[in-house]
Amino acid sequence: MRVDILSSVDATQIWLAASVFFMLALLLITTSRSALIGGVAGVAAFVWLARRRLHREGLGWLALVAAAIAAAAASYASWNTLASRVEETLAVGLGGRREIWERTWAMASDFRLTGVGVGAYERAMSVYQRQPHVFYFNHAHNEYLQMLAEGGLTLALPAAVALLAGGWQIRRHVDADRTAIFWLRVGAASGMVAVAVQSVWETGLRIPANAVLFALLAAIALHDSARSRA
Questions:
Q1: For 71, 143, 158, 200, which has the most beta carbons within 10 A of its beta carbon?
Q2: How far is CA 81 from CA 24, 88, 91, 100, in A?
Q3: Do 222 and 166 form a contact (C-beta atoms < 8 A)?
Q4: Of 86, 201, 194, which is closest to residue 141 (Cα–Cα)?
Q5: Which SS3 state, helix, strand or coil, does residue 131 take?
Q6: CA distance linking residue 209 with residue 213, whole number of Å
């Protein structure tokens, strides 16, 4: 059967493909290991959430387009730099993050209930960081650990409940959605998974722009399309 590709592609799809291309190219240019791992987790989450709506033919086209975009974006990557980063990870492991996490865990253990105060991590770490040192630990390089150190169980427990409840609601909306918003919802949910995975090594959500983008993804993923179905 002959497929007329030109008639099935509109301007919106072209813009979306271009957006994916530029985002992937920038991701490879940064050579950030945590971002790459988060990106892989996001793609895996997208395929898993959309598996019931992707037929074999649709999955084939998706894989073909994704491979073409990835091949084009890969031309912007510095493979020597990326390879050295991977070799460094295999040789050193967690590296400096291990010490940061150990010092942060000591802080969190001393202030289990209330933490040292939201935003007070850097000042408190000046007491816990070993001497002598060349630079200061101003972030925990782990969003969850820093939340526990700054807010203690008073903040961590409600945050964990909100995270689990939000994940359950998103899964319920994804399963029930029969509208065109389904693909936007799955994309937003996959982006949230990517951020959640990257947050194991980084504290990127403390940057206002990233926090706003994450909030927008949450709003799209939790959008109630019941009125649209009616």
A1: 143
A2: 16, 10, 15, 25
A3: yes
A4: 201
A5: coil
A6: 6
